[in-house]
TrEMBL record:
Binding site for ATP: 47
A GO cellular component annotation in the UniProt record: cytosol
Positions in coiled-coil regions: none
Sequence intervals crossing the membrane: none
Keyword Transferase (UniProt): yes
Region feature (Disordered): 625-647
Name of the molecule in the record: 3-phosphoinositide-dependent protein kinase
GO molecular function, one term: ATP binding
InterPro entries reported for this sequence: Kinase-like_dom_sf, Metallo-depent_PP-like, Prot_kinase_dom, Protein_kinase_ATP_BS, Ser/Thr_kinase_AS
Domain Protein kinase: 18-282
Native source organism of the sequence: Thraustotheca clavata
UniProt superkingdom: Eukaryota
Annotated keywords: ATP-binding, Kinase, Nucleotide-binding, Serine/threonine-protein kinase, Transferase
Length: 688
């Protein structure tokens, strides 16, 4: 057959034998075209490598010739249905050509998208694709070849049979013939193993690590170590921590964990690919006959998730919330597990879950939903991956919590939390109306401290919380609520989380990072006799260090929000104690953070070049400037990050309900913050 002569002939073809058609893709130094053989009319994929370009790239990429030759050498010897076939290589005066199998279809990456956003695929389809990869990796291991750059962009989904073809072997490693092997430090950051990042020699187990990353991505739409930059990815990989969404099956979670072992020898499949194939995740897969099977159809549950996500996406972006609310949103609160968290995850990947008309629908009431954006140490929708670039100036408001019931509790002293709260509630509502009336609607309101005086275990807590929730209807739905935990988060953390979300977390808004901390742990953690409390204190400290390092690297403006002030007037001041109104022997409580905890914190904040620290927990408002301290030596270019000039930082304490009814209004620019106190004048109907 003529077809056989084109593919298998020992005589090399010529560039003029083919007509190049549309471009299929491109890499760092090549382009791939669909091409038709002029005589046989057969279609091929031809990789075109411009000689002059690789000569130019050799200056900063000295291994480029080896990569071209490695791909030629490896693909010439590999014969596997899940690996792209190379038929011939040839050249002319200007280009090198790789004549390869043409597989109609797209990258695996494309199969993971919905409405332009990467959401992952169904678990059945993920299992199907993963089985293709396992078969290919087992074959590569038998040939002593390591791919070293496995990722969805290097996998093509065949339109003919639905199976994968692995491509791009330029950075492969030959474990037997090392002539063309490049450096150890190669690959794509989000898929690179710890030993690769450490520039250590690697073997086939690095591809098992990449497989774990890919399975995670197939199931969730995101890689486990995504960090926003190569350096941050490397830090996450070396830390070895990643999240597994709750809606994943136990089998899926288990195989990911067993593939992402920092020790290469402990990875599932390191000793035997049969152990990998026998994992329960692959139940129902016949690896020997896998190429004869077709991709699985979506289940009824899969169809529900996809159709619901499409409807909600259209409701947000196409009708601008003017059309009828999709029925799935009406019933969102009642969705069962794992349907509810899975749909929320997909909407989050599509960047619409955080929308004020969407997220609260998944909670018993809109008010409860507005209070629950802090989750998994992040703020839904306002994360580094989505909000890491400066867009435009914006505003936010800083308010101290209304402490509903405080006055009555001090009078009654019965331990029930205060039986009335009308005066505090009226002032709080007056403040919300004032915020609503601003010419520019703030992006968010940071509510710092206790929203209710009663704790969750006291009689009047539920009623006070309900009154607080009802008041939130005054505030424009577009204004987000950011809660900075007060004392309740230390004494009853589970109840606090149920009502207000995480007790410490970070949020990003247009390149600005706010780190919200549970300052009660600073007060008690250093002296804690309670091992559980000490664990919480140490966990927050470890988390805070990572977030400060990350913010120093990536944020245009970096702020800290804590209920308790680090200090009130001077960084070296003594602890200021709150005067107790009780006659019993209740322990005294400090206004500010004790010096032994304060000074190390100020040092770490100085190293991170914090712009401002916002606090409450005082009987009057304070706005001080202080010099940031750091043990790190100052360099000539240290002031290029737009941090406050002269190493000065703002220390803001907001007392909204003390001497005057007030809040702080903060205007955020790329160069820093403008902080303006707003005093609310009493109205005839206001008790203030």
């Amino acid at each position: 057959l003529i077809t056989f002569e084109v593919k298998e002939s020992v005589e090399k073809p010529k560039a003029t034998d083919f007509t190049l058609e549309r471009e299929l893709g491109q890499g760092n130094f090549s382009k791939v075209f669909l091409a038709t053989h002029n005589s046989t009319k057969e279609q091929f994929a031809i990789k075109v490598i411009e000689k002059q370009r690789i000569m130019r790239l050799k200056i900063r990429h000295p291994n480029i010739f080896n990569e071209v030759n490695m791909e030629k050498h490896v693909l010439n010897r590999l014969r596997h249905p899940n690996i792209i076939r190379l038929y011939h290589t040839y050249q002319d005066a200007t280009n090198l050509y790789f004549l390869m199998e043409y597989t109609a279809g797209g990258e695996l990456w494309d199969a993971l998208t919905l409405c332009g956003k990467q959401i992952g695929c169904t678990e059945l389809l993920a299992k199907f694709y993963a089985a293709d990869i396992v078969n290919a990796l087992e074959y590569l291991a038998s040939q002593r070849i390591v791919h070293r750059d496995l990722k969805p962009e290097n996998m093509i989904v065949s339109k003919q049979d639905g199976h994968l073809r692995i491509v791009d072997f330029g950075t492969a490693k030959n474990l037997e013939d090392t002539t063309l092997n490049g450096p150890n430090f190669v690959g794509t950051p989000e898929y690179m193993s710890p030993e690769t990042i450490d520039n250590k020699p690697v073997d086939t187990t690095v591809d098992l690590w990449a497989l774990g990353c890919i399975i995670h991505q197939l199931l969730t739409g995101d890689t486990p170590f995504q960090g926003g930059s190569p350096y941050l990815c490397f830090l996450k990989v070396q830390a070895g921590t990643f999240d597994l969404p709750g809606f994943l099956s136990q089998e899926a979670k288990d195989i990911i964990v067993k593939l992402l072992k920092p020790n290469p020898a402990e990875r599932l499949g390191a000793d035997s690919f049969q152990a990998l194939k026998d994992h329960p995740f692959f139940m129902g897969i016949d690896f020997d006959r896998h190429m004869q099977t077709s991709p699985p159809h979506p289940t009824t549950e899969d169809k529900f998730i996809i159709e619901s996500a499409k409807q909600i996406f259209g409701y947000v972006w196409e009708t601008n919330n003017d059309g009828p609310q999709p029925q799935v949103l009406v019933q969102a609160m009642a969705l069962s597990h794992p349907r509810k968290p899975r749909l929320m995850h997909v909407l989050n990947r599509m960047q619409i879950l955080q929308h004020p008309s969407i997220y609260p629908c998944f909670f018993p009431t809109k008010a409860i939903g507005r209070c629950q954006y802090a989750s998994n140490r992040l703020y839904v929708g306002w994360t580094h991956g989505v909000q890491n670039e400066w867009k435009a100036p914006f505003d936010f408001v800083h308010v101290s919590g209304p402490d509903l019931g405080k006055s009555a509790a001090f009078k009654e002293r019965d331990g029930l939390g205060g039986s009335s709260w009308s005066s505090e509630l009226e002032q709080f509502q007056e403040m919300l109306r004032s915020i609503n009336a601003r010419d520019r609607i703030p992006a968010f309101v940071a509510l710092s401290g206790n929203m209710t005086f009663a704790t969750p275990s006291q009689r009047y807590y539920t009623a006070q919380l309900s009154a607080f929730h009802d008041s939130l209807s005054i505030l424009d739905d577009k204004i987000r609520l950011v809660f900075v935990p007060g004392d309740h988060a230390m004494t009853q953390p589970n109840e606090y989380k149920q009502d207000f979300g995480d007790d410490y977390y970070c949020l990003w808004r247009g390149g600005v990072k706010c780190i919200i901390v549970n300052s009660s742990l600073w007060l008690h953690g250093l002296r804690a006799n309670d091992s559980t409390l000490m664990e919480r204190y140490l966990a927050q400290e470890a988390w805070l260090k990572k977030e400060l390092d990350h913010g120093a690297l990536c944020a245009q403006v970096l702020c800290i929000m804590s209920h308790h002030p680090l200090f009130l007037h001077d960084v070296n001041e003594d602890t200021q104690w709150i005067e107790t109104q009780d006659d019993n022997n209740a322990p005294t409580r400090p206004w500010n953070i004790p010096k032994e905890a304060r000074l190390p914190l100020l040092e770490s904040f100085g190293e991170a070049k914090i712009h401002a620290i916002f606090s409450t927990n005082f009987n009057r408002s304070v706005h001080e400037h202080f010099q940031r301290h750091s043990k790190k030596p100052k360099h000539d270019n240290d002031d290029e990050d737009d941090a406050p000039s002269n190493d000065m930082c703002d220390m803001v304490v907001t007392a909204s309900f003390s001497e005057k009814l007030m809040y702080n209004y903060i205007h955020v620019k790329q160069t820093g913050l403008t902080i303006k106190p707003i005093v609310i004048e009493p109205t005839p109907t206001s008790s203030s």
